[in-house]
Design a protein that fits this description.
The complex is a heterodimer of chains A (about 170) and B (about 280). Chain A is mostly helical and about 170 residues long. Chain A contains 7 helices and no strands. Chain B is α+β, with helices and mostly antiparallel strands and about 280 residues long. In chain B, a hairpin with a 4-residue loop joins strand 4 and strand 5. Classes of the chains: A mainly alpha (about 170), B alpha+beta (about 280). At the A-B interface, helix 1, helix 3, helix 4, helix 5 and helix 7 of A face helix 2 and helix 3 of B.
């Protein structure tokens, strides 16, 4: 099990503070990408459950204070994502590019739907279900691409490390 | 039973259930649990102001780099446009312009005689795909109350106050699905209409105009202002212009798309209209 380090905390703080601007700058096809959620999902892999749980509570709380209600719906989204990550971690590593991409698409697709149900009146959700599905689908696809890139990068880094170790052993 | 309470999984499950319940209670903007928010939100507002300044500077820096190549071309075109505009403006007499400005100001003052203008800076925009809320740096301490109308610096309607804290307030724009404005088509024989926000139109910055009377003439380009009905928005605030008119499937009802006069993407300062105390 790995622990969160200062890099994670600083990145999360930056993402919370700049989330409105980042999502606006990198908006594709009018879909705002939730970089904070993606980062938290990726960093929760192989981390202690207690650490992740506390981090998510604090993140969700601050996010709610800044952009939403006191106990924002975002905590629920983060918790659902965290439980999903715990389950994925049992069967796949973060470097498993295909697995992670598929799961990334699914998590973001489902959480996007849940977000709609939490943020909008139920009658509006049902009336605009096609539009919400459209947002959820694209959210999943864009997020999946980011998951794929991160996972691929980590795979390359790990392969590079293995090669380096083998070369050293060969030299000895 | 004692063992059950000592069980880690049981403890976490109970904690999660409690959090979800609190979270769902806090969804209600009138819930008293949201008062706790003030303890943290008051100092956070100051931090958020700084973050907003930094982010604005970063954004303008990158925008200037990105747009540099276009600037030269744009400059040429703008110079041409300026010369055309100069010709046009020369034709309009200064007295006429001054007269119009004064009349507008007088009308505005009459319309909002019962209101105080509270100036507010936009701190953040909710980064969700479904919500488009603004947080501003004035709150209940500045006499801002829920459902106070909000106008932009060009005196066009932006929306209303949705939630307030001590030092901040959340504003929902007229494009939001929770927003409904009673409007008046600003022309001779114009009628009352209802302007509503929609989830699918929000991304295009448009609203839908409903309940257009059968005998009312409406054309693209018509200006719509608030009618004063409904009790939230005072009469005479410009809302926007009609950009498209269409009929329902049964051809019985007419609908229209309205483009608000406020550009939501470049908002930095807004005015909240608070009612004057009449003693």
């Amino acid at each position: 099990m790995y622990k969160y380090n200062l890099f994670h905390y600083i990145t999360i703080a930056i993402l919370i503070a700049f989330q409105p601007f980042l999502s606006e700058w990198f908006m594709i096809n009018n879909i705002k990408i939730d970089f904070l959620l993606i980062f938290i999902i990726i960093t929760s892999f192989n981390k202690g459950k207690k650490d992740s749980f506390i981090l998510i509570l604090i993140t969700g709380l601050i996010y709610g204070l800044l952009y939403s209600n006191f106990f924002s719906q975002y905590i629920i989204i983060l918790l659902i994502s965290l439980v999903s990550v715990w389950n994925i971690s049992k069967i796949a590593k973060i470097e498993s590019v295909v697995y992670i991409t598929i799961y990334g698409v699914l998590i973001l697709f489902i959480t996007s739907f849940i977000k709609a149900f939490l943020e909008l009146p139920i009658n509006e959700v049902l009336k605009n279900i096609t539009y919400i599905s459209h947002i959820a689908l694209y959210n999943g696809i864009y997020g999946g691409i980011i998951f794929m890139i991160v996972s691929l990068t980590l795979l390359i880094v790990s392969l590079f490390r293995v090669n380096k170790v083998q070369t050293r052993r060969g030299n000895f | 039973m004692r063992n059950l309470f000592r069980n880690r999984k049981f403890q976490i499950t109970i904690l999660v259930i409690v959090l979800i319940i609190i979270s769902l209670i806090s969804l209600n903007r009138f819930s008293s649990i949201n008062l706790v928010k003030n303890i943290v939100s008051v100092p956070i507002i100051f931090i958020q102001k700084e973050v907003k300044d930094i982010s604005d500077n970063v954004a303008s820096f990158f925008a200037s780099i990105r747009d540099y190549s276009d600037v030269i071309e744009e400059n040429k075109q703008l110079k041409k446009e300026i010369s055309i505009l100069k010709e046009k403006s020369a034709k309009t007499s200064n007295i006429e312009e001054k007269n119009k400005r004064l009349r507008d100001a007088l009308v505005l003052k009459e319309h909002f005689a019962n209101f105080n203008f509270v100036s507010a800076n936009v701190l953040s925009i909710n980064p969700s795909n479904y919500k488009y809320e603004f947080t501003v740096d004035v709150g209940s301490i500045d006499n801002v109350k829920i459902d106070n109308p909000v106008i932009a610096s060009n005196n066009a309607l932006l929306g209303r106050v949705y939630q307030t804290d001590l030092t901040s307030a959340k504003i929902i724009p007229i494009t939001d699905e929770l927003s409904g404005v009673s409007g008046w088509i600003s022309r001779e024989g114009g009628g009352n209409v209802t302007i509503r926000g929609s989830i699918s139109l929000k991304q295009y910055g448009l609203c839908i105009v409903e309940n257009i009377p059968q005998d009312t003439k409406i054309v693209v380009g018509d200006v719509v202002e608030t009618s004063g009905l409904g009790g939230i928005y005072p009469k005479g605030i410009i809302v926007g212009t009609i950009v498209e008119i269409f009929n329902s499937d049964s051809q019985v009802n007419r609908y229209a798309y309205l483009e608000p006069l406020v550009d939501m993407k470049i908002l930095s300062e807004v005015y909240i209209l608070t009612k004057k105390d009449t003693k």
